[in-house]
Amino acid sequence: MLFDSHTHFNNEDYTSLERQALFNTVDKAVKQGKMSGAVDIGFDLPSSEMAVEHARQWDWCYAAVGCHPHEAKTMDEDKLDRIRQLAAEEKVVAIGEIGLDFHYDLSDRDTQRYWFRRQIRLANELMMPITIHAREADQEVRDILVEEGAFSEERKEHFGHAGVLLHCFSGSAEFGLEYVKMGAFISVAGPVTYKNNRKTVTMVAAVPMGRLLIETDAPYLTPVPFRGKRNTPLFVEYTANKVAEIKGLLPKEVAALTRDNAKRFYGIPK
Ligand code: NI
Fold first, then answer.
1. How far is residue 169 from each of residues 12, 135, 246, measured CA to CA in Å?
2. What is the CATH topology of the domain spanning 2-266?
3. Is the pLDDT reported for residue 270 higher than 90?
C-alpha cells in the first residue's frame, strides 16, 4: 500500500480531462489495494484552493496549503489570511510547500525569506505540520526553521516529532541525520533512482527507516525507468523499490513503513 506524500494534482499544466483521468487511475489503484493515498500540495493560493477541493472530492486525497518560494512574489496579507482559512478545512494536513529556492530565484530572496518566515509562524499558530522546499539554500532554510521555532518543544510534545518534513531532500547524509535528530522527517522522490546519485543513496542508507517518506512530486521528477515522461503518483512504486534495495528490505515492507510514516507525519488516521 503505497502513499505518495507529495504530489501536484493541482499543477496548472493539466487540462481538466487529463486531471480527471489521473484521478481515476489513482482511484483504481486505491480500490485495488495498491495505493492508500496521496497529499496534493499547494504552491500558491489558487493551487491551495484546488488541493482543498480535490481532498473534498476524493476520500484518499489530502491537502497541504501554502506558498512556494517561486510564488512568494504573489503573496500579500489577504492571501495569507485565505491560506489560514483553508488550513482550518477538514483534510488539510500541513502548511506547504514553503521554503527557499536560490537555484531559480523566481522571487527575490528577501521576499522568499519574508513569506517563508510568515508561513512557519502560521504553522506554529495553527500547530500544523510543515512541508519544506529547499534548493541551494539548505543552511539558511535550517537556520530560519530553528529561529522561527519549527523545532520547539511545544511542537514536539504536540506531534511526537517536530512536524517538519524536508521534501525531496537533496542534502548529505550528515545533514539528513542532523534534521532527524532535530525531530524532522526526510522525503525522497524520483532522483534517488537516477544513476550517479550517490549522495541521496548514501543519505537514504543513513537515515533511520522510521523517519523516511517517499513521494513523486508529480508531474515532475519522474523516476527511472520512466524518466523523461510525465510523472504520476503511481510511479512512487519505483522510488519505494529503490529505497528497498538501499535498505535491504522488501518493496512491500518499504511501502507499508513509508505509508505509516507519512500518516504519522501528517496526522492522518490509519
Ligand atoms: Ni512540489
1. 24, 9, 16
2. TIM Barrel (3.20.20)
3. no
